[in-house]
Amino acid sequence: MSNISFDFSGERILITGASRGIGYGIAEAFARAGADLILLAESDDIFGAAKRLSERAAGQVQAVKCDIADPRAVARELNDLDRVDVLVNNAGLELITPLADMSASTEAAFRRIFDINLLGTYYVTRAVVPKMEEGARILFTASIWSRVSVPEFGAYCASKHAVLGLMRSLAGELGPKGIRVNAVCPGWVRTEASMRSLREMSSRTRRREEDLLAEITGNQVFSGLLEPDDVAPFYLYLASDAAANMTGQALMADRGEVMA
Questions:
Q1: What is the C-alpha to C-alpha distance for residues 37 and 50, in angstroms, rounded to an integer?
Q2: Residue 232 in contact with residue 189, Cβ under 8 Å?
Q3: Cα dihedral 144, 86, 234, 42 sign
Q4: % pLDDT > 90, the chain
Q5: What is the pLDDT of residue 3?
Q6: Where are the domains of the chain?
Q7: Per-residue burial over 51-65, b = 16 or more CB atoms within 10 Å of its CB, e = otherwise
Q8: If DSSP codes are grouped into helix, strand and coil, which group holds residue 108?
């Protein structure tokens, strides 16, 4: 965990995909920094996450259950917000989608990944920007796979490449309004989604999970698997005044796996 401190007292932060993993780690970090939080996810788990954070957060914590791939639901759930200072577009879906798999389930997964990672992110941003004033910030969770790619994760890699394109376009579009737009590209972080991908890779290659993980982390300059707490400070930095002159940028949070 970082010893660097930030103060977001009085600021309202909306974080999507905040019920677990990186999203929950980001929420914890902003809570420690005094922010008021709006946590959004598609499952009921978001209410438990909000309750846990509210018990130790200085600011207010609100939970919103919403499938961001449904534009009507997004508009309905976010319509009554009067102000958002920081939007963290973190919600995402990571599934294996091999080209050779012609099944209906894989095709459905491909579409769902784009519906959440790209379209859902667009819907949320479109709904929130009217609630933002000059000085607001928008952050995207991309991935190292937005800069490189791996076999059999075509939908996920393509969607994250698209997220970076969207981020850069919005940085130019919203810059005149005084809104900064940046992204964080995490490497392998110990989350439910990444460990599921590891299991699937192990099953398909018939290699042990520990061997695959050793190979993955061996590509990093600094060894070891990242934890959500390791990644969260990148978001606080980009949301802080320390990054006041940054927009349209993608920070690699990957222990040196992909050199920018």
A1: 9
A2: no
A3: negative
A4: 81
A5: 65
A6: 12-188+228-252
A7: eebbeebebebebbb
A8: helix
DSSP 59: S
75: CB partners within 8 A, 6+ apart = 123, 127
CA distances, 131 to each of 60, 136, 180, 236, 239 (Å): 18, 10, 14, 20, 17
Average pLDDT in the 147-154 region? 93
Residues 166/195, Cβ–Cβ less than 8 Å:
no
What CATH topology corresponds to 12-188+228-252?
A: Rossmann fold (3.40.50)
Residues annotated as part of the active site: 156
Say if residues 48 and 23 touch (Cβ distance below 8 Å).
Answer: no
8 A C-beta contact, residue 90 and residue 71 = no
Token pair for 171: 């940085």
**Is residue 80 over pLDDT 90?**
yes
Tell me the pLDDT tens digit for each residue of 16-29: 999 999 999 999 99
| Residue indicated by tokens 């018990």 | 55
